[in-house]
Write a structure and sequence with these properties.
Length: 81
């Protein structure tokens, strides 16, 4: 049972990581990484916060995110049964 629980936790962690990378990283865009500090400071702070909220809401609405969270919780509960 412990081995199944370990594999379930590793698989769920991998799914969570992939989900965050795809929904968060690609949604934000790769080009944002290469902005200059000056350009970033000139942007409106409220606009940047709205973009971050949009990225987080996209992650929370993802089915893969909730499946991975449920898998992690289940992998913790399996050895205790």
């Amino acid at each position: 049972m412990n081995q199944i629980s370990n594999y379930l936790f590793i698989g769920s962690s991998a799914l969570l990581l992939i989900t965050i990378l795809i929904k968060g990283g690609f949604t934000a865009g790769v080009s944002k990484v290469f902005y200059n500090v000056e350009q970033k400071m000139q942007q409106d702070r409220l606009e940047e916060l709205e973009k971050k909220d949009h990225i987080l809401s996209g992650i929370y609405r993802s089915i893969a995110f909730w499946i991975s969270i449920a898998g992690m919780i289940l992998s913790i509960l399996i050895p205790k049964l």
